[in-house]
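Hello,

I think I submitted the pyridoxal-5'-phosphate job twice by accident. Can you confirm which output corresponds to this input? Input:
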Amino acid sequence: MKWGKSRNCIRELFEYGTVRKAQIGVENVYDFSLGNPSIPTPECIKESMIRILTEQNPLAIHGYTSAPGRQSLRKAIADDLNEKYGTAMEAGDIFVTCGAAAGLAAFLRGVLMPGDEVITFAPFFPEYTVFTEASGGVLVAVPPKEPDFQIDFAAFEAAISEKTRCVIVNSPNNPSGVVLSSESIRGLAEIMNAAQEKYGHPIYLLSDEPYRELVYDGIEVPCMMNFYDNTVICYSFSKALSIPGERIGYLAVSNKMAERSEVNFAIAGASRALGHINAPSLMQQVIEECLDATADISKYKENRDILYNGLTELGYSCVKPDGAFYLFVKALESDSKAFSERGKAHELLLCPADDFGCPGYIRISYCVDKDMIIRSMPAFKALIEEYK
Ligand code: PLP
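Support: Only one job matched these inputs. Its output is below.
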């Protein structure tokens, strides 16, 4: 059988944590494995759900919607993007998906031909490999640019070729928390425009943005569509609204894309082939009412500061994350899996970054209870002392 052989290291660690917590008590395990939002869902989500469920006809609430989503929601999303980023998107450019994962899978399935290459930048979300390979493509990872994890232009130019069909960026980034600067995006766009010219075919920029709203200290996330015409945004409401289990997000195809209509059709066709019928109907209505809402992300910033300051004071090294809810820390030995194992001996669940294309690092998810972070500090201290 083709599927099921490769394992998801994050999930494995999480499952280990579940067993361990049952053995020694939840409060004794420092679980930094999963990126499951930990701050309350905004009230407007609950209020909107209750209102829709009590006031509307159940058949209208729970029935099928059109495959790309309710027209009014698609229009509201396009208007929202236009207002925020000065774009000129239309409802027809929006395809409502079951979260970012479904959006990534549908876009790649829609545009890739067998053997096409998809470039991304390490560290990257491990599912890019799965979605690319399932679509017949090959993922090419540009090595990380340490220590700031911006874009290494020379390495990117070396990776791009006639086979390149798509480039995936993810900012704010999982796992580093880094937000790409305008300078990085401008350089990326220049190289991609030159490559399109040279090879005579479009190269799509797929901007995976589930953490777009999760930024701290007034940092801005530039809109990729304003830098590069062949851009598709993949967005998710999972993280900003703390609703990852509700499965809702969207793909937005830039109105400046020359092959805009073909790409919109390709997304629709690929989604169909992947078994998509429509994104959850109730959630589509809720999102339309709550498009402006965001969970209170100040709690993530507080967690980031405690963890970043605490770990750097102890002697760990990592880039200060401007966004998302992850800290990307250099392991204290070259084998990050071995380091993660040694963390387990102190009840620290730290995800080795090999599958993120960045061996030698570990990812810490700080979408957790603040008290757990504070309680975990002696364990981090004991761990670093083992290496002195
Ligand atoms: N892309 C990145 C970078 C992610 O971190 C995640 C989830 O953690 C996803 C996509 C998938 O998000 P969703 O829950 O919306 O499918």
